[in-house]
Every structure is written in C-alpha cells, then in structure tokens.
C-alpha cells in the first residue's frame, strides 16, 4: 500500500479524536538556524482553532488503525469492517517534515491503535517523536496520545519529546467504560494520569529552580496533559459529564477536557445509539466547562439533580442568570469582578475592560459595543449610568423567550 493511501485511511481514522488543540506550550523557534519549525505565536500553530475549539493545523494521524482492542464506540476496533493500514515510524517522520516544509501543518498529533502490546505501541509512537526532535531537529508542536498501560519509562520518554500528552478517559462513568471498552482499565487510566501529573509538577518545580541553580531543567510535556470524553454514546447526563470533568481537573491538573459528540459508526453494536447527539450539546458542554474553569462557577450551579441536562436553546450562564434573577440587576459601577463574571454576555476580557474603564469614567449603554458586550443579552441584567432595566422585565415570565433562537420548521429526516 502506498503512503498516500495509508494517509487517507489513517488520517480519516484519527478524525474522531478531538483532543488535539495546542495551547500553553513553551516558545521555540528555529531562527538560530539550528532546527526546523516553531511553536511561537504568530508563526501559526496557536492560531489554528476551529470555532468549537478543535485544532485544525496539525498532521493528525494514527500510526495504525489495526487495534487489538474492541471498544464498541470506536471505528478502529478489532471487529470493525474498515480498511486497515499501518505507517512505519519513518513514514510518519517523513510526512511530518514534508508537510511542515510545505506549510501545510504546524505540528503533529499522533495516536495509534494497540498493536502487539501497550509497550510496543507506545515505543513506536515515542520513536516517531524522538526521531523528529533528535534527527530532524523538529521544533514544531507534538502531541502524543499516551497508552495508559505502557511502561512508566516510555511515558517519561514521551514527555521528553512531546509538548502535550493525553490519555482519553473516553466515558464519563466507570460502568460505561467497562461495558463499552472491556479491555480498558479505568484504574490504569487514572493511575497514569496521576503519574503524569507528578512528572508535570516536578518539571514545573525544576523549571522554577533553573534560574537559581543554573542547571537546565529536564523537559516534560510543557503544554501539560489533556483528555477526551465521548458525549452521547452512553446515557450519562451533562451533570455526570461535568462532575467527572471537575474531578479530572482537580485531581490531575488537566489543561483541557475535550468533549466529542459520539458519531454513529458503520456496523455498530446495538448498545450504541443510532443517532449522534445534537452538536449543540457538545458546544454547551464546552461553555459550561469554561464557566467552571474561568468564571468561578461550581458544577452544582450549572447542573443539578433537578436539571441534569444543559439547556440547548440558551447558553449555561444565561440559563443560570434566568434562574437567579434575584441577583440582578447588577450595578456595574460597583459590582465585584466575581459578580461581573456572572452577567450574561460578559466575557473575562470584557470584565477586565469594565474594571479598567470604570476607574476613569462612568459606563454608558453606548459603551457596550466598544467593550464587545452584546447589548440585548446584557441590558436586562445590568445598571449603567444611563440605563436601569424595568423591574417588571426581570420578573417577567417571558424574559427567557427573548433569548431563545427563533423557531424553525424542521426538515424531513428520512
Ligand atoms: S483502544 Fe479502543 S478506542 Fe483506542 S483505537 Fe483501539 S478500539 Fe479504538
């Protein structure tokens, strides 16, 4: 099989993995003439995000889609009837370098089905990264998918060459993982995430001490670790998904949890749904995730037993504000940063701009556009020097209707 055909198969097989966005890595470039590639902002890589957060400019491939495991939700599972291919290590290295030189990509995202054993597979993946870094002086971004059962020494080596490592938790609940991916071991996944965390913490400490000790700190995945959860393959609610995410962020200091809406696959098991969940569900989960990480929200404020699913028609912050109308309207001349972050339509940058502006002058409704705040969304919830919402408006049963998208007639779905 020629490399072009392998690429078709193995790039297609990798498309279901959403956990490849690049952020937070160290700056490297090759202006000293000693290497190839760059991770520096402005040189391409950090700007390559699709609106839903997916990375769009890495060479994203599997080493092979032939896998010993039989995870029900995966198109590459052992029992799947798809064409199989396998790259050699040198083929992936050459493709990465060729694509980089042609300016098609700014880095590599490499994953693999499990061949022979976890150690053998991990070794192959690590060898690609080592050759790129050591033989080709490649300084672009590298994200390696880590195989949880692989030997600790191989994972340590992966961190030496990769910018980011990730281990997919796959399912929001342990029982679902057992049912859908019986060969996977949730304890091994969590154990390896824990080990990665310790290595990342050690590397951070060593980096801090570098200046004092003048000893170069050993490198370990400077862009940290991430994971992916499949949404909609099992019956887990958004509350379960977000609670698992909060636990993962807290326990393993993950950079990101990626949510990947389940895509129906050919010849799928009957245990799987026939349809994909609405893509809006994935989007709302990302919004809720941001509320937890950057806006000071606790999971229980976003979803709870009474409302375990996120609303699809309004974003989670607006949904929260509509449930907590007694906290509004908020006088933005006096409100704390924490309070401002809870106003619908206020992003973190807008809040910083408000705080900087209100020190100098009072803010009027005409200023909202300059502050990049959507007027219609924010005005019912705030007091400005020239604006105070009608008390009746906040109490009105129809307030929520103002924010909902217009109803559309659905097409026939044969
Ligand atoms: S281990 Fe499971 S999820 Fe990963 S490639 Fe194999 S079958 Fe797919």
Q: How does this structure look, described?
A:
- By secondary structure, this protein is an alpha/beta fold.
- The chain has 2 domains: 3-273, TIM Barrel (Alpha-Beta Barrel), CATH 3.20.20.70; 316-403, no CATH class.
- It contains 15 helices and 8 strands.
- It has helices at residues 3-14, 89-101, 118-135, 152-161, 174-180, 186-213, 238-252, 279-294, 299-302, 316-323, 337-340, 348-358, 375-378, 391-395, 399-403, and strands at residues 58-62, 107-111, 141-145, 164-166, 225-231, 256-261, 330-331, 382-383.
- Strand 2 (107-111), helix 3 (118-135) and strand 3 form a beta-alpha-beta unit.
- Helix 2 (89-101) runs parallel beside helix 3 (118-135) and helix 7 crosses helix 8 (279-294).
- The longest helix is centred in the middle third of the chain and has 28 residues, at 186-213.
- The chain is globular.
- Residues 21-25 and 37-54 have low confidence and may be disordered.
- It binds iron/sulfur cluster (SF4).
- Iron/sulfur cluster binds at residues 67, 69, 71, 74, 76-77, 113-114, 181.
């Amino acid at each position: 099989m020629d490399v072009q055909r392998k690429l078709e198969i193995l790039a297609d097989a990798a498309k279901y993995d959403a956990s490849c966005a690049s952020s937070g890595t160290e700056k490297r470039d090759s202006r000293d003439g000693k290497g190839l590639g760059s991770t520096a902002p402005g040189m391409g890589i950090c700007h390559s995000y699709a609106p839903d957060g997916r990375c769009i400019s890495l060479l994203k491939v599997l080493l092979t889609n032939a896998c010993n495991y039989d995870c029900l939700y995966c198109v590459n599972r052992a029992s799947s009837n798809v064409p199989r291919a396998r790259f050699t290590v040198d083929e992936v290295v050459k493709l990465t370098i060729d694509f980089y030189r042609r300016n098609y990509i700014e880095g590599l995202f490499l994953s693999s089905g499990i061949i022979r054993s976890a150690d053998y597979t991990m070794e192959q993946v690590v060898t690609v990264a080592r050759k790129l870094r050591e033989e080709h002086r490649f300084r672009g971004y590298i994200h390696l998918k880590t195989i949880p059962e692989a030997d600790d020494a191989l994972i340590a080596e992966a961190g030496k060459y990769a910018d980011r490592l990730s281990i997919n938790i796959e399912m929001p609940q342990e029982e679902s993982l057992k049912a859908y991916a019986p060969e996977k071991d949730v304890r091994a996944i969590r154990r390896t995430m824990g080990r990665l965390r310790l290595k990342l913490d050690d590397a951070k400490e060593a980096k801090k001490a570098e200046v004092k000790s003048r000893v170069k700190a050993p490198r370990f995945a400077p862009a940290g670790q991430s994971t992916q959860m499949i949404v909609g393959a099992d019956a887990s609610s958004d509350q379960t998904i977000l609670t698992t995410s909060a636990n993962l962020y807290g326990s393993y200091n993950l950079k990101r949890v990626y949510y990947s809406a389940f895509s129906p696959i050919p010849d799928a098991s009957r245990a799987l749904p026939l349809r994909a969940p609405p893509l809006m569900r994935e989007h709302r989960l990302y919004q809720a995730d941001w509320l937890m990480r950057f806006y000071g929200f606790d999971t229980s404020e976003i979803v709870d037993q009474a409302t375990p699913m996120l609303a699809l028609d309004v974003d989670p912050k607006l949904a929260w504000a509509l449930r907590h109308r007694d906290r509004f309207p908020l006088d933005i001349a006096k409100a704390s940063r924490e309070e401002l972050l809870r106003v619908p339509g206020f992003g973190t940058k807008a809040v910083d701009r408000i705080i900087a502006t209100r020190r100098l002058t009072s803010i009027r409704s005409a200023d909202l556009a300059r502050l990049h705040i959507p007027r219609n969304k924010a005005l019912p919830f705030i007091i400005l020097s020239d604006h105070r919402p009608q008390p009746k408006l906040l109490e009105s049963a129809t307030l929520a209707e103002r924010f909902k998208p217009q109803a559309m007639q659905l097409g026939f779905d044969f």
